[in-house]
Amino acid sequence: MTKKNGTSYSEPRCSFCGKTESKVEHLIAAPGDGVYICDDCVEICRHQLEERVEPVSDSVALLPPEQMKEELDKYIIGQDEAKRVLSVAVYNHYKRVNYNLKNAVKPKKGADDERTISERGTDAEVELNKSNILMFGPSGCGKTLLAQTLSKILKVPFAMVDATTLTEAGYVGEDVENILLRLIKNADYDIASAERGIIYIDEVDKIARKSENVSITRDVSGEGVQQSLLKIIESTVSAIPPNGGRKHPQQEFIHMDTTNILFILGGAFVGLDKIVSDRLGKTKIGFGGAVRSDKKDPDSLLPQVQPQDLIKFGLIPELVGRVPVTVALHDLKSEDLIRVLTEPKNAVVKQYVKLLDLDGVKLEFDAAALSAIADKAISLHTGARGLRTIVENALLDTMYKVPSDKSIKKIIITRGTIENGDPPQVVKEAA
Question: Which residue in 147, 232, 259 sits closest to 198, CA to CA?
Fold first, then answer.
């Protein structure tokens, strides 16, 4: 009871539970007179609201293969067959992921939670296995961009690693399991999201063993890395040091299930076409006849790669068995590179046109200049990867002077600018 000026009045009470102000830690007054709510009731309301919130779905939003290829077409020029194969493979992989997540049996209390989804089984009779992907093709043909764009379309985390930096556990270099840590970091440490991501391992051809014969000595950056990749590529629960580096006793680990992670392996695989050609072209006429080998275009040979060709190249059979989907990419021709320069959303020419437009200058490339850029990239054997460097070098002086010279209104890049370093045509404001 509180008194004021000798007059008594009732102590304020919570309008929900009826507790007086002295019985609770906080009593919040509503606008108006005589309406209050205590901190206990606020907490109860918060819990009730949380229970009403729909849980976030673990499933991946999928596009049908045709629509997925249409999205890829916006960023990658050419490689139509490769985009078809990838669209189907990625669609099937995440359809499997959604299926397994929907039908996974929740472990009982006290059960071993370290088992993978596949090991726990599903309610359905059919179990869908994982199909990882191997891409091979020359440098600059779009392997990395394809993998990155797929993750962007599906809105799943993505991580990329160069296989040449990896070594077998216990040796100087980067442990294979650190690949998973990169994916976790790119997923903002959301493990559930990372477990549905995409990992792209580039330069896989560089870890091929040197011969078909099993090595009797350690090959820690070649066959040893392939052996280390086997476990995480298939399905396992990996223990990952949260800060990377080597494992040691009494260390806390992040546990991550790789069952639903899509692994895409890529590499140039120089010489693989010859292996395929030898296999296809060998014929014998009678006993002890001469061997005949017909030379063919690499673009027609790579789509015919068989597992035995990859094993002969230097991949171990176990790894080949874990990447059943193979995708062959071909060298980009001059007309393809011109389209790469001008058509995609992130086309190099569009980017530089926009950059100069921000300075109030119109930038144009004549048709001969675009052809010269494509031809130069082909001669340097850089593919699409080298286009930006060629354009940057051609525009360096222009981009240096334009911000200071407000009279410049238009720049035209010609063939001479690309091939001979001639100054571009400059149109200035009339005096």
Answer: 147
